[in-house]
Amino acid sequence: MTFRSKAFEIAQGRVSPVLTPPTEKVADLYGSNTFSDDVMKTLLSAEAYSKISNAIRSGSTIDREVAEEVAAAMKSWAISKGATHYTHWFQPLTGTTAEKHDSFFDLTIDGKAVEKFKGSALVQQEPDASSFPSGGLRATFEARGYTGWDPSSPAFLMDNGAGGKTLCIPSVFISYNGEALDYKAPLLRSLVMLDKAATGVCQFFNRDVSKVTPTLGIEQEYFLVDKALYYARPDLLMAGRTVFGHNPARGQQLDDHYFGSISPRVNAFMVDFEFEALKLGIPVRTRHNEVAPGQFECAPTFEEVNLAIDHNALLMDLMQKMGDKHNFQVLFHEKPFAGINGSGKHNNWSLSTDTGINLLAPTSKPKENLRFLTFLMNVVKAVHDHADLLRASISSAGNEHRLGANEAPPSIVSVFLGGELTSMLEELVNKGEITLEKGENFYYKLGITRIPNLQRDNTDRNRTSPFCFTGNKFEYRAVGSSQNSASPMIILNTIVANQLLDFKREMDERLAAGEEKKVATVEILKRYFLESKNILFEGNGYSEEWIAEAASRGLSNIRETFDALYAYKTDKTVAVFERTGVLSSRELHARYEIELENYVKKLQIESRVIGDLALNHIVSTVVKYQFKLAQTARSLTDLEMLAEAEPIKEIIRDISSHVVVIKKLVHEMTESRKKANNIEDLFERAKCYGSEVKGFFDEIRYHVDKLELLIDDEDWPLAKYREMLFLE
Predict the structure, then answer these.
(1) What is the model's pTM?
(2) Mean pLDDT rounded to a whole number for the chain
């Protein structure tokens, strides 16, 4: 029995662990493992609680005395719940989370055991930064880096799975010189700047607004495969995706998996991780089957952006741990299987005021709609002016497999507003008036009396648009499923903040010159619409016609990651980030270097996996199978059954022709990789990998996948698509 068939046998015999649902109501369960506002209010003095609350709301500094009190309360709370260690939990530029656990246990001078956690340990920790990506911000031999407590994201308890819990403290990660080595630090800076810029613009419409908070809802797509079959696929293990695999006869063409009944085993996994997520304060609400077999989605309630991104990173880690418990491997790669849909991470972004107003929600009141149009058009203008930068923010080796396929937004950045909003903007330009009136809701008349009237939204959704307005928010659909959402949100927050600063400056100048406020606003918005109109697109973003039309409009279509990432280095980008203070030119260049280096390493790994599998697994297996066929053909020939032997000889010839090509292509790919590795300039190395080395991947795959159809099913060494995708 081959390892593959043994793995398949194990997979078929899997049974879900018996779940014991918690006795508490979900509302009581929610946040039970977080050092929440309610917990702080109970454990802290009124003065300390007030200072912490003000720091979270307004960004004021927390003094060391308050930090000591918070640390004592946090330690007491964590230990009472079974914690033995604490860690600063941070998000370095590796794309994953990181943590260094320290024990609460310590010894006094006279050798007595105590449990200790000082305010200094809460505020700051020093992990070794030498092995984290820095993009040249530090020399190789320089190891010092610092993590710093982010009080706006609640500390939480992570169950280690083998007894004991760890107190995790969300933190920023900076270099010895104070430069950001993570996603959180620039994200927090971008949120501060967007709040300042948006609040300034809100003041033109409502003086009561003193704070604007960006909100985010992250829809997470993923695949599940059985753990045994995962380990029977070295490519999944090493590269996160299947580099070989013939499409099964049945894939997603029947559209029967989407929103279909969730299998008991998968449902048990979902229920398990949702319970744990709720304990950690992650407000997961939605679960369903996605389009491709074996693909699923979960989504939370909208939260403040920083918290939403922390929760998504934590959720991905939690899902992997729960997957192990249920003998599943969770795949977050953007395209783990060829021929079926890949996975995205749709980022639904909006702006809310401290007065309870969603700034991206239209209303029936003209004055409020002018405010809505102001923010809408500033976002559109920002995306139009910095489309290449937004494209760079979602560029990766994994997303390169997904973007532009018949499943995901293309590499052309466009904005969908819907017919009604577009008409409204055109009226504003042509007549200087806002004609949209929400009026009464529109209901569908179904002609079925027992069905209640169904309300229609103001606009349909366009799933082919990478950046679409969906009624009261923008959905950035092009983000990859494995990505940290901070990267595109840093860009979006920054370019919108920069644009709002421009709008306010011009408004101030016009008002100072005596122009009436409404007239000034309308005139600026009219110009923004005309300057940005070419990025608005209502049609099918997957079509070939759109590619041609986008080119005629002058829109970029940057297909390759190594080209897209260059947007981080342009003078235009540097000017925006330095003006807003979100990233310095050094920090921007470092991120460019890190992303390019990561792209090279991912393709290098895939290339090595392809070569190893092709020669050491596929070709060696095929040669053995050929020998069996040759023996059969020889026996038939000896029996003078020449006609019967001929089809077998033909199969042997087919196999040989594919083997010859595979060996030739693997050799050429290896030589191409050696050439790329010897290129000093990082961009040129990435370009060589992306345009030359990667060019061999599909060619080799074609011949390997043909062999999968020729070799006896029992002899094929790799778990097949039909086994991985349709396993219950």
Answers:
(1) 0.93
(2) 89
